[in-house]
Specification:
The chain is 33% helix and 27% strand. The chain has 396 residues and is of the alpha/beta class.
């Protein structure tokens, strides 16, 4: 039997953050990862904003930066005009394009340097409960079963969120329009602009968007996300992406060197993502931005918050739901208002025609917009296309 103050399940950015800040606080910490290689396989567009890094205590490192961009361009369906936003105002996906496997490994290294133990190829298989609270996990490690007891467990096991579900939390996303199916190619010999991440809206990516994230000269991640309600079958999303590439000579001449698929939740922040002795962070807590699909920054910050509550709970020997709810309030104070606004915008954008979408892009390409916000969109539309206000009034 292994005994720890904190057990972290999952070694993505959220898990590494939770382990790093727990260990730094003087807590005996173990982080486990089911895969043999932290950060692999990559299931990510690899776009990353800069604005959160100070709070996360992360300094940019050229080791994991593939490209640094000036901003983002958002194209309407006709692609005649684009909204151009500076990187610091363009959301969770813009600033750096990273090598995600290298980034994740460095985040795990920060946890190790702070004193956390790390077990790779060590999946959690069962929740241990004692006296009505989560008290650890049964883990397969080095070919044998280990009971890892912990005063606090932090689950950072991503989109699938198995551990929370095993413990008794409802993690299933019931609304199918809150799940995005994604396909991405890493391509060489393409004509992407290394200064901008590009986003394409409209029927090219129904109820989602298509993206180009440059990875230096003549290389880019070219991907698409489509809600599962808009896809007829599992090949439909790939067909949308292939058709777009075929119609753009700068990309149709490119060569695919990596093929990635995956799912992303784009729901509102969950009402409940804790149990006595258990905190969920990052994707497991559904903290992905509903309109951009960005989740790295939110995962890391929520991991830091979880570590602070774990420290307080252990110091006070209080693992009650009331104590765990302090973490929920911290997370909701940070993310819930923005996520709800972006979820409503996401829902509305999915209903707009290509013609209306082009008008929105036209408006916003001609005015000074300092941030992607519903309020900014509405004010700009009121000035140029007041006839659209009726269609957009439920966003007010």
């Amino acid at each position: 039997m292994q005994n720890y103050d904190v057990l972290v399940v999952g070694a993505g950015p959220g898990g590494s953050s939770a382990a790093r800040f727990s260990a730094r606080a003087g807590l005996k910490t173990l982080m486990i990862e089911k895969r043999p290689d932290i950060g692999s396989p990559v299931r990510c567009g690899e776009g990353l904003s800069k604005e959160w890094m100070h709070e996360g205590e992360i300094k940019p490192n050229q080791h994991w930066i593939a490209d640094e961009v000036k901003g983002a361009r958002i194209f309407g369906p006709s692609e005649k005009k684009a909204i151009v936003l500076r990187a610091e105002k363009a959301g969770n996906e813009v600033g750096f394009v990273v090598e995600r496997d290298k980034f994740d490994k460095e985040m795990a290294a920060f946890a190790a340097e702070a004193g956390a133990d790390i077990w790779i190829k060590s999946p959690a298989l069962e929740v241990i409960k004692e006296n009505g609270r989560v008290a650890g996990a049964r883990v397969r490690h080095n070919g044998k079963m280990e009971d890892v007891r912990a005063k606090m467990v932090i689950a950072a096991d991503g989109f699938e969120s198995e551990f929370g579900r095993w413990a008794g939390l409802k993690s299933i996303i019931l609304a199918k329009n809150d799940i995005i199916s994604c396909v991405e190619y890493r391509m060489r010999n393409v004509d992407s602009d290394p200064d901008y991440t590009d986003f394409y809206l409209g029927s090219v990516a129904p109820a989602g968007y298509l993206w180009v994230f440059p990875k230096g000269e003549r290389e880019a991640n070219v991907g698409i996300g489509v809600t599962i309600t808009a896809a007829k079958d599992r090949f439909d999303v790939k067909n949308y992406l292939d058709n777009w590439i075929k119609n753009h000579p700068g990309y149709s001449k490119g060569k695919t060197i990596q093929y990635i698929t995956g799912g992303v939740s784009v729901s509102k922040v969950k009402d409940k993502f804790t149990l006595p002795g258990l905190l969920l962070v990052g994707d497991a807590a559904r903290l992905i931005d509903p309109i951009t699909g960005g989740g790295i920054a939110n995962s890391y910050i929520s991991g830091k918050y979880a570590a602070s509550i774990a420290k307080e709970a252990i110091e006070k020997d209080d693992f009650s739901q009331e104590m765990m709810s302090k973490y929920e309030r911290m997370v909701k104070d940070k993310f819930e208002r923005k996520h709800l606004r972006n979820w409503l915008a996401k829902e509305k954008l999915a209903t707009l025609s290509d013609e209306t979408m082009d008008k929105l892009v036209d408006v916003m390409s001609e005015v000074q917009v300092n941030d992607i916000s519903t309020q900014a969109i509405l004010e700009a539309v009121q000035q140029k296309y007041p006839e659209l206000m009726k269609e957009l009034e439920d966003l007010i």
